[in-house]
Design goal:
Number of domains of chain A: 2
InterPro entries (chain C): Bact_solute-bd_prot1, SBP
Order of helices and strands of chain A: HHHHHHHHHHHHHH
Radius of gyration of chain C: 24 Å
Helix content of chain A: over 70%
CATH class of the largest domain in chain C: Alpha Beta
Oligomer: heterotrimer
Largest sheet of chain A: none
Largest sheet of chain C: 5 strands, mixed
Helix content of chain C: 40-55%
Protein name (chain C): Carbohydrate ABC transporter substrate-binding protein, CUT1 family
Chains: A mainly alpha (288), B mainly alpha (356), C alpha/beta (433)
CATH topology of the largest domain in chain A: MetI-like fold
Keywords (chain C): Signal, Transport
Distance between the termini of chain A: 45 Å
Number of domains of chain C: 2
Distance between the termini of chain C: 80 Å
Organism (chain C): Halanaerobium kushneri
Pfam family, one (chain C): SBP_bac_1
CATH superfamily of the largest domain in chain A: MetI-like
Number of helices of chain C: 18
Largest interface: A-B, 106 and 105 residues
Number of helices of chain A: 14
CATH topology of the largest domain in chain C: D-Maltodextrin-Binding Protein, domain 2
């Protein structure tokens, strides 16, 4: 085998693996798209078809009314707006407070680091159901509005996550960077937000995206906190409130359509930020 | 002079650290202190949810009710005629006494959680809350397999996406799609794919390839429930792992690979000698959060298995909402808390990531 | 720059906080009804609320939609009641909740309900009465029905089955014929076999119609461990993998309906909601089916499990008088008729089943009357506040028999022990009319 052949073979193998990964990740999503384009009769057809087909004639027949239905449903649009507000605010708050804490935990010397780290992690160790009624009591006592209470309570899982991931990144940054900055007369805080923060961009973007999605998808807290305040319902709750004409009827096609539509903004978000995920360190930057 | 300035510096650093940690702790204290404290306190009471019955302090009763178990041997049934152990005519299996005969009933009723054989003897594990004992087992099995596969697949995906090829940017977005689908909805979507008729994807495919007869019920067959749920979770959360690992890979300086290349080290050796060791800290954090989420798994179990099979958190949910035993539910919460804490420390120690 | 961002964020939160404390107008009172979120059900509730507001100036009625999933709705209500919230005045509650939640609701007999209860179905009123107090007014009802394919029964010249044995026989015959004719997905009978409340409903129908009692009797005796009950559960377990698909042990209402509407089942047990949906254009079942009471077993009489929703007035309401008055109006004849005609919700008032307008809008209501008068209530009031646990132990036991994990006799023996442990009741013999 010549070197060229080897190269080609490697390339073919690589793209094969890539193709398998793409199919694995996307096929269930494709199934959701296909289901969202089916009528109830097409959904219950046996055997199921990969492309929506007419039950009688077997010809391809696409049904778009599920999409029309969700967009004429005021609750869904409102949910998209609410989810955007809530998830963005939570993420910004978590990244802000989390990166401060992480800088302290990862780069500064002080006593009691381990207890601090574990205390923060402990906040997120209970199942959501367990803390729900306690949280609800706190929210009632503080008289928080539904949106604000979601923003704050989501910090219960986003803040420990951002803090821990960022701490591990700060710790891995070479100490020389800080020392050289200090020699140049920078205060530790200046070092932090002028030099270290840009270096952790991949971690910031990664944790930001992951927390954003987690907050975007949260259901149980949102369901409870927005139960009275209809205007504040987020997307997962709005979808759960989708209903057919009759009680018990589950509008499966519409739910799938909503799932597809809701995923798109996140994909766009990732496309905007994706370069940052890998734009991190060059060897030069590390040496300082 | 030098000493005092360095100790001054240390003091200042400590002060700064305190200031930086303050916002995070302030937020956590305001929102979390009361609910978490309440969970601990309630776990020692017999409090009922949304009920005016008087709450009493019951000490460790809830924990005892959840965790007590007993192992009893089941005596073989002797056939009167032959004097030997009776054998079931249909299945050909040896017959043993039913657990109902041997498990204690007073002062508490013990129900069979599961049975096992050992050296030809048969034993039954009885528990006061067998559903909880089983839910712990289900959750541990689920956590082990799903975290294992997620890490493996996440690593593969991250390495592939990290290499140079056309369409990398799009691939990074594609990679996140499963994670982006709303959890409750994705569980419903998979439930539909597992539908026990040929309207469901897997029955349709299985039937087309002649593997099953087209009305296989994945979610009510005891052997397939956990594998099905694990498959769903692996699909859903591999992106989470992959993205965190991908970010970790960015921290590894390129020169290390260049140097290894010059030394003639193979790609495999590079992976095991450079990538893996340097990835450890990021991997540890990713593993901790994945394990933590897996141990608290709720949505997939709730939607797909509901009351057929519980995870710890879904059992907890039904104890609170359906049985309204708030004291019991809180005790379950505390037990989950302790298990997760143990896992977190275990990971940190075994992966050699220091916290100081 | 970062500091500015913090300031801006703080400002945003302060504004958001202050928005909450805005006071309401003084001169009118607002009453909130937590009700179903579903299409016509919600629309007609709002229509009725508008009618009430027009006649009662000074009262503002709001309909708060709640999740359609009973578990989610129940969890939400518990959260409100735990917080003793005055935000909701009237709750729409499931027929199995009055006993569970009785302590949070007013006795409607104190607010003039005595005069109207006789108009409603007796079984529901009895179900909603806890310790002599009327916890909730019946609003609309539901009961298990047998759906059958008229075209197929005609084609094979068979009658609508009156007993479970007949159903089994007919189902087996037609299923074999249809499969031989090429429809390999065809089954005889689909129902709700998943381990959830729906199975409690289905299994109660088998047992009660077979003379096996209703799990726990009204006078608080555990009656489940009897031969009639065991016999019929065994029979049902025999359907799984035979006239019913093996996957029926994972099916709920919607799974059964989906299979039925694909034209893949001869019989289906379901609630009345599937009637209008099955007749939608383009579905193989449209125009080809009808409903009848479920088959009977040894008792000779059919039994459909009672479902449906009721209106209860919260003890924590700030305006109990007005709220009770509103509940009486919503559950009254006028509104029930409106909802029967416009949303095909089954009234709980007996006379409406002879009302011409109602029968014109929903002709199949006439045949439901008998089903509702003979409906069997789940033992929720007798076992309160432990009904959910009782029901879970019951459906888990039945499910384990259906999947073949255990045999009916030991499952029921254990169930009896479990129920004694949970409720503290004695055992007894089933008594049935």
């Amino acid at each position: 085998m010549t070197r060229d052949q080897k190269k080609i073979l490697k390339k073919v193998l690589f793209y094969l693996v890539l193709a398998i990964i793409v199919i694995y990740l996307l096929f269930p999503f494709y199934w959701a798209i296909s289901s969202s384009l089916k009528t109830e009769a097409q959904l219950s057809m046996t055997p199921a078809t990969l492309i929506p087909r007419d039950p009688d004639t077997g010809e391809i027949s696409i049904f778009t009314r599920n999409y029309k239905a969700i967009f004429t449903n005021g609750g869904f649009i409102r949910g998209l707006i609410n989810s955007t507000i809530v998830a963005t605010s939570t993420t910004i708050l978590a990244l802000l407070t989390g990166s401060f804490a992480a800088f302290a935990l990862g780069k500064l010397r002080f006593k009691g680091k381990a207890p601090a780290l574990y205390t923060i992690l402990a906040m997120t160790m209970f199942p959501q159901v367990t803390v729900l009624s306690g949280l609800y009591a706190v929210i009632n006592a503080l008289n928080l509005s539904a949106r604000v209470s979601m923003i704050f309570t989501y910090l219960l899982f986003t803040l420990p996550f951002t803090t821990w991931v960022l701490t591990s990144f700060f710790r891995d940054l070479p100490d020389e960077i800080m020392q050289s900055a200090q020699v140049d007369g920078a205060t530790p805080f200046q070092t932090f937000h002028m030099i270290l923060l840009p270096l952790t961009a991949p971690a910031l973007v990664t944790t930001g995206l992951l927390s954003f999605i987690q907050a975007w998808n949260e259901y149980l807290f949102a369901l409870t906190f927005t139960s009275i305040d209809v205007e504040a319902r987020t997307v997962p709750v709005a979808i759960q409130y989708f209903s057919g004409e009759f009680a018990r009827q589950e509008p499966f096609g519409e739910i799938m359509a909503a799932a597809v539509v809701v995923t798109i903004p996140i994909v766009v978000l990732v496309l905007i930020f994706q370069k940052r995920i890998v734009a991190g360190l060059t060897a030069g930057a590390v040496k300082g | 002079m030098a000493i005092s300035s360095s100790s001054n510096l240390a003091k200042e650093e400590q002060k700064l650290a305190f200031k930086l940690l303050l916002p995070a702790f302030l937020i956590l204290i305001i929102i979390a202190l009361y609910p978490l404290g309440q969970v601990f306190y309630t776990s020692f009471t017999n409090r009922e949810f949304a009920s005016s019955t008087k709450t009493e302090f019951v000490g460790l009763d809830n924990y005892q009710a959840l965790l007590s178990f007993t192992v009893k041997e089941l005596d073989p049934i002797i056939d009167q005629e032959t004097g030997e152990q009776a054998v079931d005519e249909e299945t050909g299996e040896k017959q043993f006494q039913r657990p109902i005969r041997v498990l204690p009933r007073d002062p508490h009723l013990y129900r069979p959680a599961f049975e096992f054989s050992f050296f030809g003897n048969k034993y039954v594990v009885g528990a006061r809350t067998p559903d909880f004992i089983r839910s712990v087992w289900n959750t541990l099995v689920f956590t082990f397999f799903s975290v294992f596969f997620e890490t493996l697949l996440g690593l593969i995906v991250a390495l592939v996406v990290n290499s140079e090829f056309k369409g990398r940017g799009a691939m990074r977005a594609v990679m996140l799609v499963p994670w982006a689908v709303i959890t409750v909805v994705s569980a419903r979507m998979w439930e539909w794919m597992f539908e026990p008729t040929r309207a469901g994807l897997f029955n349709m495919l299985g039937d087309r390839f002649g593997l099953i007869d087209g009305s296989y019920s994945f979610l009510s067959s005891a052997n397939l429930q956990l594998p099905a749920i694990i498959a769903v979770d692996v699909w859903k959360t591999t992106p989470f792992m992959a993205l965190l690992i991908l970010a970790g890979l960015q921290l590894i300086p390129n020169e290390l690979y260049e140097a290894a290349e010059v030394d003639g080290a193979s790609k495999f050796r590079q992976f095991f000698n450079i990538t893996l060791p340097l990835l450890k800290p990021s991997l540890a954090v990713a593993l901790i959060f994945r394990t933590l989420d897996a141990l608290r798994v709720f949505d997939v179990f709730q939607v797909m298995l509901s009351q057929k099979r519980y995870s710890m958190a879904s059992f907890n949910y039904f104890q609170l909402i359906s049985a309204r035993k708030m004291g019991m539910a809180s005790a379950i919460g505390v037990i989950i808390f302790i298990i997760i804490f143990a896992f977190a420390i275990l990971y940190m120690k075994s992966l050699g990531v220091d916290t100081e | 720059m970062r500091k500015n961002l913090l300031l801006v964020l703080a400002l945003v939160f302060i504004i958001a906080f202050s928005g909450v404390v805005m006071a309401q107008e003084e001169d009118e009172i607002t009453l909130t009804i937590a009700a179903g979120a579903v299409g016509q059900e919600k629309a007609t509730a709002e229509e009725a609320a508008a009618m009430y507001m027009e006649r009662n100036p000074g009262v503002n009625v709001e309909i708060l939609d709640t999740p359609d999933l009973a578990n989610d709705r129940y969890g939400l209500y518990l959260q409100f009641l735990e917080a003793e919230s005055s935000k909701v005045d009237i709750y729409q509650i499931d027929v199995i909740w009055p006993g569970e939640l009785a302590e949070h609701f007013l006795d409607l007999y104190d607010y003039g309900a005595k005069e109207v209860v006789d108009k409603h179905f007796q079984a529901i009123v009895q179900n909603n009465t806890v310790d002599g107090k009327l916890i909730a007014l019946p609003w609309f009802t539901d009961a298990g029905l047998l759906y059958y394919r008229t075209d197929l029964l005609e084609k094979y010249d068979r009658e609508v089955p009156k007993t479970w044995d007949e159903l089994e026989e007919t189902a087996r015959y037609i299923m074999e014929e249809e499969r031989a004719a090429g429809n390999e997905d065809f089954y005889g009978y689909v129902w709700q076999g998943n381990a959830y409340e729906g199975l409690t409903c289905d299994a109660l129908e088998w047992i009660y119609s077979n003379g096996g009692g209703k799990i726990v009797s009204d006078d608080k005796k555990i009656t489940i461990n009897n031969d009639k009950a065991i016999e019929i559960i065994d029979q049902a377990a025999g359907w799984v993998g035979g006239i019913s698909p093996a996957g029926v042990t994972g099916m709920g209402e919607e799974d059964a309906r989906s299979m039925w509407e694909a034209g893949n089942a001869l019989f289906m047990r379901n609630w009345p909601y599937a009637y209008a949906l099955g007749n939608e254009e383009g579905k193989p079942t449209a125009g080809n089916f009808d409903v009848s009471p479920l088959p009977a077993g040894d008792s000779g009489s059919s039994a459909g499990t009672l479902g449906g929703w009721n209106l209860a007035v919260s003890k924590y309401s700030e305006h109990p008088e007005e709220a009770a008055k509103l509940a009486m109006f919503m559950a009254g004849e006028e509104v029930q008729k409106l909802r029967a005609v416009e949303a095909t919700l089954n009234p709980t008032i007996k006379s409406l089943y002879e009302d011409e307008d109602v029968l014109e809008a929903a002709p199949f209501f006439g045949s439901l009357y008998d089903v509702f008068t003979n409906a069997v209530a789940r033992p929720s009031t007798a076992t309160a506040p432990k009904y959910n646990q009782v029901s879970e132990q019951f459906f888990q036991a039945v499910h384990s028999v259906l999947t073949g994990e255990s045999d009916a006799r030991s499952a029921i023996e254990y169930l009896e022990l479990d129920l004694m442990d949970t409720t503290g009741f004695e055992t007894g013999e089933p008594t049935q009319p």
